[in-house]
Amino acid sequence: MKDLVLGFIGAGNMNTAILSGVLRKQMFPPERIWLSNRHAEKLSAFSKLGIRTTTDNRAVARNADILILGVKPQMFGDVLPELKDLVSEKCVISIAAGISASYLKAKLPGAHIIRAMPNTPLMLGVGATAVARAEDVAPELFQTVLELFRAAGVVAVIEESQMDDIINVNGSSPAWFFRLADIMVKRAVSVGIDADTALRLTAATMEGAARMLAESGKTPEELCRQVCSPGGTTLASLSVFEERDFDGLMLDAMDRCTKRSKELGK
């Protein structure tokens, strides 16, 4: 990555998370990072770190060798025309749901396009990012992009045709876990358990369960059975999942997530 300049369009949560990982791992010095955002007040904290900041997207595109588009899918119609004449032969990474590589190539002729789907835990360096295979991108450049996301968590390479569905696995899914935790904590508080205690135990339990999924070598189904004792409390609770068709509920949620990604798509 020697001498390469990294650019970010947008200073929202995801770009901030990626940028934090890059700085944490010292992959790029601050003076070789550019960041733009339409609201100048969001840039001051980054400027203090030595990052080059601006409200002008074109300035970032002009100076960057690798450009990460961290804007909402609805904003691409406004942003891409600004960049069109500045990104030929440069690497442009889109982290937006639904925006296809073919659409980006048509709007940004000559650019090397890579699609990625990160998630918000990147903010803590424990994210999960899916990157679409890009056969027309040089292997060295593609590996550089993978390293950018590995700086803040786990990376998997998938086919671009799977991008609308991978959002169920790592993109939107943190919100589902947060929703579950919210219910657990509120239930605990309702029976007199301290909220901080309930949240701490819930978070630790989720973290421990995640490590078991990643490290035990067992399937989620096997781990679920391992928690259950015949006639015990866990089986009693899971019986409600069966009665209320929890599997069907989750599949419906995932289908709607994919459907919305396709609706946003271009």
Question: Features of this protein?
Answer:
alpha/beta, P5C_Rdtase_cat_N, NADP, 12 helices, 2 domains, 8 strands, 266 residues, oxidoreductase, proline biosynthesis, ProC C-terminal domain-like fold, Rossmann fold, eight-stranded mixed sheet
Description:
The protein is of the alpha/beta class. 51% of the residues lie in helices and 14% in strands. The protein has helices at 13-24, 44-47, 57-63, 76-83, 101-107, 139-150, 163-171, 173-190, 195-215, 220-227, 233-243, 246-264, and strands spanning 6-9, 33-36, 52-54, 66-69, 91-94, 112-117, 127-132, 153-158. An 8-stranded mixed β-sheet has the order 3-2-1-4-5-6-7-8, with helices on both faces. Helix 8 (173-190) packs across helix 9 (195-215).
Low-confidence stretches: none
- The largest sheet has its strands arranged as 3-2-1-4-5-6-7-8
CATH homology-level superfamily of the largest domain = NAD(P)-binding Rossmann-like Domain
Counting structural domains, the number is 2
Secondary-structure element pattern, one letter each: EHEHEHEHEHEEHEHHHHHH
Rounded average pLDDT: 94
**Name given to the CATH architecture of the largest domain:** 3-Layer(aba) Sandwich
- What name does the CATH topology of the largest domain carry? Rossmann fold
Rounded to the nearest angstrom, the distance between the terminal CA atoms is 31 Å
EC number: 1.5.1.2
Domain Pyrroline-5-carboxylate reductase dimerisation: 160-264
Catalytic activity: L-proline + NADP(+) = (S)-1-pyrroline-5-carboxylate + NADPH + 2 H(+); L-proline + NAD(+) = (S)-1-pyrroline-5-carboxylate + NADH + 2 H(+)
Keywords: Amino-acid biosynthesis, Cytoplasm, NADP, Oxidoreductase, Proline biosynthesis
